[in-house]
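[INFO] parsing input record for GntR protein
[DEBUG] input buffer:
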Amino acid sequence: MLGLLAPSATYYFAEVIRGAHEAAARAGARLILRISDYRPEEDRARTEGLLAAGAEGLLVAPAWQGPEDRETYGDWLAELPVPAVLLERRAAPGSPLDGLDRVASDHAHGVLLAVRHLLGLGHATPLLVARGDSPTALAVRAGYAEALTTLGLTAPRPVIDSVPAEIDPNGFERAVRALHEVVVSGQASAALVHNDVDAIQIVQRLAELGVRVPEDLALIAYDDEVAALADTPLTAVAPPKRQVGRHATELLVERLTEGAGDEAGEEAARRHLSLLPRLRVRSSCGAPPANTI
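[DEBUG] output buffer:
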């Protein structure tokens, strides 16, 4: 029996869970699930519940929303009594958690794909509109800074902070107005927006303000959960979520079946596996739709 702790069973993590479930079934293992609802203080109790239910190995995606959560609520993961694999989370270099197996999307690569695509269409440096409330959002922000450094570019303005429209309507409107101002002033003609839901709502609100996608603004969404369903299908960076779940489960099963070590009695090395996102080109950048990049 394998246990899986996830912060959510919807949106991004639904595909991760599906990939894990499929891999567990192929291995003849049962997968049981606990959800923390993005409450990092609940992670340990939920994990203990998985162990009490009989889990012999664990797939763990902690509910961290920032580095402070990792520092406050992460140390216990390094002391688990069974093999464990981190899902879509990265430990601080040199920390006890850094010695765990992990499988995660390389979001810096995904951001670089998006920036290069927009540059290739003739746009100046694209700006970033992003949330700051999850490890993925923070990784996208860090990836954006890294991409600009790699390409020798300067951002047209600081990152525009996005928030969910249903939670903070005023904050959402401020983000839209900031993006609108940059576009109509000619400072930028392209943007990367994390995440899909924000991107769709931003496109709708910009249209009400007279800014059209892709005619006035080329836009790429990040996550590719619902980007294809927008009125103008959105080009999107697609992290390999299902494959993250699959590879992590296969690695965990391998840990449980490998025995004491190799022929020389040496324990198998821990693995940090980074999977590369793809760019799915649709209509929101003005380029002819394609399959993937």
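[INFO] The chain is about 35% helix and 15% strand.
[INFO] shutting down worker
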